[in-house]
Specification:
Blueprint (H helix, E strand, L loop, with lengths): L9 H15 L2 E5 L3 H13 L3 E5 L2 H10 L3 E7 L7 H11 L6 E6 L6 H7 L4 E4 L4 H26 L9 H17 L4 E8 L2 H8 L1 H19 L4 E4 L4 E7 L3 H17 L2 E3 L2 E3 L3 E7 L6 H17 L5 E2 L1
Parallel strand pairs: 1-2, 1-3, 3-4, 4-5, 11-12
Antiparallel strand pairs: 6-8, 6-11, 7-8, 9-10
Helix pairs in contact: 3-4, 8-9
This protein binds 3'-deoxy-guanosine-5'-triphosphate and magnesium ion (MG) (3 copies).
The site of one magnesium ion (MG) has 3 residues, from loops.
Length: about 325
């Protein structure tokens, strides 16, 4: 029998290189009270180029996770002082789901029920010590591969395919949660609904592909301007929203109006030349107990006014 994927084939090497490159960006936290065990696991992980952080018990593991939100894998021992492996993962899972952080439990304890209990409490996998190196690597890689897959699925479900900002589905599913949170904390939130002016004319004059180029660049500028602190989503063809959590309407208005002016004076480069694009926007502020739909409806009224008043305007 000839294996399709030959060890020395280009495809095999390419896959390996891709994995190693992925591993370099993966931070792994190893929680174990035994220094020897920690160093051993570190050396195994470092052979595969992972970044490794160590914690000597459950409590310090929690603190380390808090300080390093970019950790993607936790490998934890069972028996540890202060807080054991179960206590640790129960605490961790209150905050981080399986799609955010992968956990592999480890123990040299001979109790056969450990593995099932680890997984029931939120671990993705379990390894009995002592283990064969190859098994350790297989489990780590499989766990990370499935995390990657979940992330990809999540992105495909929630990001807009053309512009890579959040899509309509994300906005309607998740923004309600934000509103509830703001209402509970008596905070403020404003919402802007943006619609590109005469966009149909771009398509009609230059073709649909150029229309797409404009949408991509428009979204990228929105992202550049706002996504670090706020939510940017494409909810229709050439309609976008920016959710300004924490801002009253005056401030949101000022930010959006600055964006509007900047857009007007900075033409968008396309394959058919530079095009001057303008946008009309309705901005509104969240009143408590409102739904996303109600909020959006009011923003839409503002948008309609901005269009009627001549476009390239922001209306409250
Ligand atoms: P107004 O100033 O009143 O907003 O005029 P408008 O032409 O922008 O508005 P209208 O709603 O009539 O046109 C929106 C157009 O956007 C129509 C549709 O073909 C186009 N469109 C929607 N989605 C896409 C897309 O993904 N790519 C491209 N190229 N065009 C799209
Ligand atoms: Mg221990
Ligand atoms: Mg429109
Ligand atoms: Mg339009």
């Amino acid at each position: 029998y000839v294996f399709k994927e030959n060890r020395f084939s280009y495809e095999y090497t390419a896959k390996l290189v891709k994995r190693l490159r992925r591993n370099q960006s993966v931070k792994v936290l190893v929680a174990d009270d035994s220094v020897v065990s920690r160093k051993f696991i570190r050396s195994l992980l470092e052979q595969h180029l992972f970044q490794v952080i160590e914690a000597d018990d459950g409590i310090s593991a929690l603190e380390t996770l808090n300080d390093n939100p970019d950790i993607t894998l936790l490998i934890t021992d069972y028996n540890m002082p202060r807080l054991d492996g179960f206590g640790l993962i129960i605490k961790v899972r209150e905050r981080l789901g399986r799609e955010e952080l992968a956990i592999i439990g480890l123990s040299s304890d001979s109790d056969e029920s450990l593995s099932a209990r680890f997984i029931k409490n939120g671990a993705n996998d379990f390894l009995q010590k002592p283990f064969v190196h190859e098994e350790f690597h297989c489990r780590v890689l499989t766990t990370l591969d499935s995390l990657d897959m979940v992330t990809k699925l999540w992105e495909q479900a929630n990001l807009d395919y053309l512009t890579n900002v959040f899509n309509r589905r994300y906005f309607f599913n998740f923004y309600q949660e934000k509103l509830t949170e703001v209402a509970q904390k008596q905070g403020s939130l404003s919402l802007a609904l943006l619609d590109i002016d005469f966009f149909k004319k771009v398509n009609d004059t230059y073709g649909h592909d150029v229309g797409d180029e404009v949408l991509i660049e428009f979204a990228s500028r929105l992202k550049q301007s706002f996504s670090q602190h706020f939510t940017v989503a494409r909810i229709g063809g050439e309609e976008f929203v920016v959710g300004f959590k924490g801002l009253h309407i005056e401030k949101a208005y000022a930010l959006i109006d600055r964006f509007r002016m900047q857009l007007e004076i900075t033409p968008i480069e396309t394959s058919k030349g530079a095009l001057t694009i303008t946008v009309s926007t309705g901005v509104t502020e969240f009143g408590h107990d409102e739904t996303v739909d109600e909020l959006l409806k009011r923003a839409d009224t503002g948008l309609y006014e901005a269009k009627s008043a001549g476009r390239n305007l922001v209306s409250i």
